[in-house]
Amino acid sequence: MPVNIHPTAIVEPGANIDDGAIIGPYCIVGADVRLGEGVELVSHTVITGRTKIGARSRAFPFASIGHRPQDLKYRGEPSRLEIGADTVIREHVTVNPGTEGGGMLTRIGDRCLLMVGVHVAHDCLIGDGVIMANNATLGGHVSIDDFAVLGGMSAVHQFVRIGRHAMIGGMSGVENDVIPYGSVMGNRAYLSGLNIVGLKRRNFSRDVIHDLRKAYRLLFAEEGTMAERLDDVAEEFSGVDPVMDIVEFIRSDSTRAICQPNLDRAA
Fold it and tell me: What is this structure's pTM?
């Protein structure tokens, strides 16, 4: 299918537009932008910088994608922004490219949903199938693994890691790493358990959910040190991949602590 560009849109020379793309009224597409096959910019959308958007993704009115980072250390270095296929970017979303201090790349995976007013700062790395509800905000250098969900008006501190299938409750302030399959809430956010609803929706088996529950209780028991409990869990559940995801996540290097349960608030 041919590219469909509305007469009021501005596409700068040099932009690379694949077949079937639709560029709606009053959109602006910069010279270094690459739009994949079937991408749709509904209207009033600005895509600029060294930005690549994958096939069939859609951006809605007043999204601002690829403008220079909100980082005073940025000096115009040729950093990039990559957005995967089949990702939906709703109204007033802002996404910034990377910086020299963070690997020069911001990346959003396939089949993500960024709802109204979401902000993705410089050097964030977001996996596939991630959902960010209205006005969720990421500081720079945040890492989010596949299928995590961030509730509306949540805010994530710089350099925080959020594991796969984790759930961030609405209006939470997250300043520490969130384990895979974990659920956090509050300001400052505390670990409130496992994301059982999400696990069931993703068709995890009853046996795997049972193992995750048992491993969670062992990991966050009062006896022993975290290192000792990690070793015990790794030995007991060595063949259970989701449990080992948690073990490896906690053992990985990070600038942030791990989000812990708050027994007083959870009671």
Answer: 0.96
